[in-house]
Amino acid sequence: MQALDLAERLDDGEYQLRCLWGLCDYHTWIGDHRTALVIANRISAIASARDDRPATINVERQIGTALRYLGDLAEARSHLERMIRQYVPPAVRAETARFQLDPRLAASGTLANVLWLQGYPDQAARMAEQQLVGAQKADHALALCNALVHTACPLALLVGDLPGAERLLAMIEDHVARHAMTVWSAMGRCLRGEWLLESGEMAGLDILRHTLAELSDMGFVMRRPYYLGILAKEFGVHGEIDAAHVTIEEALTLSRVQGEVWCMPELLRIKGDLMRLSGPAETTHAVETPYLESLELARHQGALSWELRSATSLADLWHHSGESEPAKSLLSSTYERFEEGFETRDLQRARALLDDLRGACDKRPMTTVVTLLTSHPSGSPSRRKS
């Protein structure tokens, strides 16, 4: 802040921008995405006033990143695509230092995450691969970490590609060890913990728990709500129900405070799953509540991938409560809006449940269909084109 104050007193626009870029990135890393967006918009205003086209284009990435975490996916995608479309590489490589790394590569990674959330897993995978190849060609340590840790490996885990995630984890662990990158090493351990848990290895629980504490001590809490959700889910799976409920509530609270709303639909879904694990004390109506909240928020964000997970969980609840017809209607209306990704884990699970639901519905008369949940926010169930 002292550097920014000095730059402002000297009316030095270039160093005002450099200070603000650093502050914006700092607030992103500590998970304060609302403040990061305010700073990014300030950068945009200063850059425009100075007619600084490179800065004006680059800040689109920072605006898009903040909006992604805040759950405004359509706007985030618009800013990121505009940045990628308009970016012109500097004539001299050293000029990239002004923005710390190649802005187009970083924007491509954030866009890949947005595409997955919006329900385009295949496009997300292609974008992540482009970022990774670009970072390898650039031979830039930070750019490669960013591509591996923030994009390629998390997306592999989200789609259920455990062999692919394991290969990427080996790359992360080798890279951060060679470059002594402490924070990135810890983020890699979070991903390793998640991979172990997805592979059925309980050792991942302690790795994830201890690494999250380590990152928190460093002041790095970006994505912490999401990882707390994973911890809560695994506590529940392993019978630690009280710890699971405490952890998921912490995750939801932190998500609201930090503005990491992007993962809140998934956290609400996990809360519903944990309530089901609590046993018969939780009524179907009570368990429905977080699932319905998750669906509503996912639809508001345009996060079709989270919506499918929530629809699958709610449909399974209804199915086991004897309401197979509304369950089928809900899940099929969500599943049918996908245009790709049918080999990914979430769509395969949804398809398997749909087959069970159709079989159950064929065996008994049609029941009342719940139409509230099957309507799309726009009034049409049709899938928007990319």
From TrEMBL:
Keywords of this entry: Plasmid
Classification via InterPro entries: TPR-like_helical_dom_sf
Protein name per the record: MalT-like TPR region domain-containing protein
